[in-house]
Amino acid sequence: xxxxxxxxxxxxxxxxxxxxxxxxxxxxxxxxxxxxxxxxxxxxxxxxxxxxxxxxxxxxxxxxxxxxxxxxxxxxxxxxxxxxxxxxxxxxxxxxxxxxxxxxxxxxxxxxxxxxxxxxxxxxxxxxxxxxxxxxxxxxxxxxxxxxxxxxxxxxxxxxxxxxxxxxxxxxxxxxxxxxxxxxxxxxxxxxxxxxxxxxxxxxxxxxxxxxxxxxxxxxxxxxxxxxxxxx
Length: 232
Prior knowledge:
CATH class: Alpha Beta
Strand order of the largest sheet: 1-3-2-6-7-8-9
Largest sheet: 7 strands, mixed
Order of helices and strands: EEHEEEHEHEEHEH
Shape: globular
CATH architecture: 3-Layer(aba) Sandwich
Structural class: alpha/beta
Strand content: 15-25%
Number of strands: 9
Number of domains: 1
């Protein structure tokens, strides 16, 4: 039986018209990313945000959580890991969509690090393609299995993907972004990417802005940027 996930949420001001779900990194929890939703609310009005806590306690960070055990020393741990984590995430996503009366095409997945691994894996294998997948500082697990990544929208298209990475990432080298983009493109899944100069294993303001605009566009929302110099 899949684990039951829960975590912090941000409710929309009115009726939810789309859902953004954050998948946190190894050793963190849902509280690590949910505040990004507050920064994106001006881009994404009428959006519900959720950030489930991963199902397992993290061996390397006792107060944190993990989607699956991760050492980054054994490539064979990644594919079983994302497959083991996917069922619980799918149950959570389906329940959250039902909570707001939304179809699967109104869902966007946002991952960081290990959460990006899971967002790409699960998002590309949903019954209905999500509106967008945004992955920060992660990598693509099991590119040799991309034939099973068949999620499509109503027009038969794969979900739009944006990968963002710092060029000084000391945990997952930036090359992982370029390799993933190439592997996905070879599988017929187009990818955009954003390189953050001088940034390590994290998300900078430019990455947040680029990501928020990408989600808004993918969800069919019109965005009006504030005048230069306006503080958010």
